[in-house]
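Board notes (copied after class):
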Amino acid sequence: MWRVAYVCADPGVPVFGTKGASIHVQEVVRALRRAGAEVTLFATRVGGAPPADLRGIAVQLLPGLPSGEPAVREQAALAANQALRAALTARGPFDLIYERYALWSHAGMDHAREAGTPGLLEVNAPLIEEQARHRALVHRDAAERVAARAFTAADALVAVSTGVAAYLATYPGLERRIHMIPNGVDPLRFPAARFARRPPAREDGTFTVGFVGTLKPWHGLEILMDAFARLHARHPDCRLLIVGEGPERRKIEATLEDRRIGFAARLTGAVAPDQVPEYLAAMDVGLAPYPELPDFYFSPLKVYEYMAAALPVVASRVGDLDQIVQPEITGLLCPPGDPAALTAMLERLRADAPLRRRLGNAARARALSEYSWDTVVTRILDLAGRGSSRTSEHRAAKLA
């Protein structure tokens, strides 16, 4: 059995948590194990007990960061590179070092290069810009040096979107090492018996539009609320289901109260990943109503999950979403930041159950054939020279 070190030194990503980044870590680890790897997980933050199928995985905790001043936390995060390097040496040798890029971490790729081990760095976002814009970044120059060091040391850079790939290309000399591999979904969470034969309409006559994700401003929740209020005013049978937790929740609840439509909406709060399919089964449409954002770089997990659940997707035409969601084939695309256009598309889907079924079935077929996590990891392992057909064969047998 070959050995993989999966490194997540980002204190903002609890590897066994429920946020999107946490799910991403868990799914890649699962797919690596299905491909025959023995995975050791190096993590700064665990975030609770592991899911049942990951309870046996070896976990090496990295130093946590102190609370308080951002400058102090930044220095502590930089110092933690020594502990990561020592832990990799002690737990090794490994056949592959796979790291999720973190703002202050460079030891994983350093260790891989020095040990002569393939080192792959997954980059999910331009973290320096995110940190400076949304939180606090004191030592920006140091963060830039860490990024350049880690990017340069990596044998290959896995960008989850064309936006991330474009960001990486701003660093000189990296062009040939950048590989765009979008995110995915686990088909086994969405079995055919439940999702391949959706009823054309709800027995109670309602039409439910849904959203899954962290409730943060850049997810377009204000647009969603405006569109739903318009939709419900015209069609009182419509319902809203929001699955997730975050800082925008109070604003959403206040909007529902002000518009007097709280009775037509349900906010679940944070839910465990294995509960998400149940909530998707209660929806008729899955929404990704992003506003107009500069340099959109997301590869939203929610969209792949909507598709696997045979939901027609209504998304904003930004970033890579027009490549993931095929207009009039697997979903509908609307201009970003346009609640009137979003409302019109929802009205169209509400009135046309055969269209919903056609789009949803096509979305599911595409998600399972092109965007499974096993497909993602097969491409990752090809970059490391460890490609294998065993995973896809195993999955095909289970889905049959």
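Comment from the instructor: The chain is about 45% helix and 15% strand. The chain has two domains: 2-184+373-399, 187-370.
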